[in-house]
Amino acid sequence: MTTLTLPDIAAQASGQSLPLDWVGMCGIALPIRLDQHILHATADAGVDLSDGTSRGIHMSRLYLALAAFKDEALSVSLIRRVLGQFLDSHQGLSTSAHLTLRFDVLLERPALVSSESGFKRYPLVLEARLSDEVFHVELLVDVIYSSTCPCSAALARQLIQQQFLTDFGNRGLTHEGVLSWLGSPKGIVATPHSQRSTAKLRIRLRKECNALPIRELIDQAEAALGTAVQTAVKRADEQAFALANGQNLMFCEDAARRLNLAVRELPAVAGFQLRVEHAESLHAHDAVAQSQWNW
Ligand SMILES: Nc1nc2c(ncn2[C@@H]2O[C@H](COP(=O)(O)OP(=O)(O)OP(=O)(O)O)[C@@H](O)[C@H]2O)c(=O)[nH]1
């Protein structure tokens, strides 16, 4: 029987000698292990092609290195090892390795008052690169919250005062009359606008950090924001949420400052960039603030 040698196009010399910054595969389906759960992730895996004379990289070597994620719990050291394998399998071709993992984390959240609970989805991205023995890993997460405009609240309060003057200006006040007025639509003649808002955090982890501080980061961000969106909601929970929002008026600048001061407290965090987007119901565009620390 004749043994055929398979053609290896990647090993050929390139027609045009030119190094490339990133070559690899995007959107690879990958199981990862996190907190005893197996999650469905997608991976972008690549290296540079610093040897501009080579036709191509060896995609299969990157792909096969990713198999480590199926057996071992996700950690910073695992990611570093996989990137090391990308480079070891491309000696003479590549000097930097890149890996992006995208997956969702579901966290169970209790209702504010009732005994109900539900799950919230947090989209996570891990971006890592290894170049000249220098390793960087960044953790990105989106946190959704509710924000009520403080300016709109003040304007609404003024309208309520004016309505009060109109209705009671020439009348003697009675406890019962005021109480009944407060419970009527006239007692809340104007409402402030509020919006579903997104905090986008990009965290650089300290070198000594191996476990990914996903839960800590999300909890810290939600505590700082004060009015994270809810899961299961009965009327009692909705009322508590209305009260929480009324006590937590914020511009996007307020949200960005609070997050900055809270996230820098986390021991695993070496630096960060953050961006908050308030999807205004007042107008069709968003109010946005950005901030960074040790970046
Ligand atoms: N470099 C490169 N490979 C591609 C591309 N699209 C598909 N491939 C295929 O990816 C497959 C795996 O490539 P290699 O890793 O070089 O496979 P291999 O030569 O069997 O593996 P090694 O012996 O480890 O080099 C090959 O069949 C390529 O044709 C592309 O755009 N660039």
UniProtKB/TrEMBL annotation:
This protein's pathway: Cofactor biosynthesis; 7,8-dihydroneopterin triphosphate biosynthesis; 7,8-dihydroneopterin triphosphate from GTP: step 1/1
Statement: the UniProt record of this protein carries the keyword Transmembrane helix: no
Annotated positions for site May be catalytically important: C149
GO MF term set: GTP cyclohydrolase I activity
Coiled-coil region(s): none
Pfam families: GCHY-1 (PF02649)
Keywords annotated in UniProt: Hydrolase
Reactions this protein catalyses: GTP + H2O = 7,8-dihydroneopterin 3'-triphosphate + formate + H(+)
Enzyme Commission code: 3.5.4.16
EC category: hydrolase
Keyword Cell inner membrane included in the entry's annotation: no
Family according to the record: Belongs to the GTP cyclohydrolase IV family.
Function: Converts GTP to 7,8-dihydroneopterin triphosphate.
HAMAP family to which the protein is assigned, alphabetical: GTP_cyclohydrol_B (MF_01527_B)
Record protein name field: GTP cyclohydrolase FolE2
Organism name: Pseudomonas ulcerans
